[in-house]
Amino acid sequence: MPRGRALAASIAIALVPLSVLTGGLVPPSYAASSDTPPEITWDQVAAAQASVAATKKLADQIKAQVAALQASVAAAQAEAKAKGDAYAKAQDAFDQQQYVVEKLQGQADAARKEADAAKKTAGQLLAQLARSGGADGLTTSLLSNSGQADQLLSKVGYMGQVTDRSNQIYAKAIRLTKGAQSLADQADAAKVILAKYKDAAQTAFAAAQAAADAAGKALAAAQATFADLSAKLTALTKQAADTLAGYNEFQAAKWGPGTAGHVSASGWANPANGYLGDRFGQRWWPFPPHGWRLHTGQDISGTGCGTPIYAAHSGTVTYAGPYSDLGNFIQLDNGGGITTGYGHIINGGILVQIGQHVAPGQQIAKVGSTGASLGCHLHFIVRVNGALTDPLPFMRDRGITLGS
User: Fold this and answer.
1) Same domain for 251 and 287?
2) How many CB atoms lie within 10 A of CB 373?
3) pLDDT tens string 241-290
4) pLDDT at 252 (0 to 100)
5) 362: helix, coil or strand?
6) DSSP annotation of 263
7) How many domains does the chain have?
C-alpha cells in the first residue's frame, strides 16, 4: 500500500471512537454506598486488555511511520540544500561572466570610439590632400614656386605620416572592434547557457523544496496521529486497569482477599502459566532405580524458575515444606474433600505458611526444580476424598484449561 494511503488508513483507525476500540466496554464505576461491587467477568477484562494491545500495536506502527517520515524529511531537506547550492553556484558563475561581458563591452566601445576619431582625422587629411590636387597638384606647385620647395616638401612628408598613422589607427580600431565583438558574442552565448543552467537549478530547487514541504506535512500529520493514538492508549490502559481492579474487587468479595487473575465461575484458577509437560498416570521413571511408576500429577513447564505458582482454589494451607521427590511442596485443603498439591518449588519460594487461608489465583510459591526434577516446572496434584485424580479433566470441568 502506498505510504499516503497507509498513513490515511492509520489516521482513520486512530480516530475511531474510544467506545468502538474498546468493544463498547465502559470503565467500572463503583457507588460509595454499595457494599457489593458490580460483577465484572474475565471476558470483559480480556477484551479491555486486547483493546490496549491492539491500540499499542497500532501506535507502534504509527511510530514506525513517524520515524520513516522523519528520514524522508531529512532526505528531502538534503536534496533541497544540494539544489539550492547548485542554484547559488550557477548564479555566481552567471554574475562573474556578466561582469566580464560588461568589461569587454566597455573595451569594445572605447576601441570603436578611438577608431571613429582616427577615421575622422584621416578623412580630414585626405580631403585636404584632395583639395590641393593630391600628389600631382603638389608637383605642379613645386615647379611654379621653386622658392617654396622646402615648405611644400615638408607638408608632403607630414601628410604621408598622418596618412600612415591614420591607417594604423584605423586598422587597430578594426582589430579591437572585431575582438571585442567576438568576446561579446562569446559572452552572449555563455549567458544563454548559464541562463538555462540557472533555470534548471532553480526548477530542481523548487521541486526539492516542494518535496521537503510535503514530507514535513506528512510528518506533522503522523506525529499528530501518534499523539492522538497515544492519548487513546493511555485512556485504554487506564480503562483496562480499572476493569481488572473491578474484576479483582468483585472476585475478592466473592472468594476472599487475595483473589487474582482469571477465576472461573466456580472459583478455580490456573495454578501456573506455561505448556503441559508429563501427564498424570504411569510413566518410565527417569531416575535410578528405573522402572514404571505412577506420575501423580500434571507437570506445567515453560515459564522458567522463579515464576509464580497460584492457588488453584480457595483453601487452607495444610503443609508447606520439603516432601521427598516433590522437593519443596505445598498442600491446600480446598474444602468439599478436595486437596491440591504444588511440587518442586524453588528454594525460598514458599510464600505461605501452615494454617494460612488463601484465595483462588493468589500467589503462594515460585516455580523451581527441587526434588526429583529435570528442570524448572510445577508438579500439580489433585485429590478427591484422598484419592488421586487426573488434574487436566478435573480443572477443565471447573472452567480452567491447564497449560494456557
Assistant:
1) no
2) 18
3) 888 888 888 888 888 889 988 999 999 999 999 999 889 988 877 777 87
4) 85
5) coil
6) B
7) 2
- What is the bridge-based pairing of β-strands 363-367 and 291-295? unpaired
Q: How far is CA 383 from CA 101, 107, 120, 155, in A?
A: 108, 117, 136, 152
DSSP-derived 3-state class of residue 314: coil
Q: How deeply is 12 buried, as exposed, middle or buried, from its count of CB atoms within 10 A (0-12, 13-18, 19+)?
A: exposed
CATH of the domain at 375: 2.70.70.10
> What local confidence, expressed as pLDDT, does residue 144 receive?
61
Average pLDDT, stretch 340-356? 97
The model scores a pTM over 0.70 = no
As a whole number of angstroms, the distance between CA 402 and CA 49 comes to 21
Cα–Cα distance measured from residue 250 to residue 263, given in angstroms and rounded to the nearest whole number: 11
Pair 228, 289 in one domain = no
Asked whether residue 248 falls in the same domain as residue 325, the answer is no
Q: Is 10 exposed, middle or buried (0-12, 13-18, 19+ CB in 10 A)?
A: buried
* Residue 225, all three cell numbers: 496521529
91 and 229 in a single domain? The answer is: yes
One-letter amino acid at 266 equals S
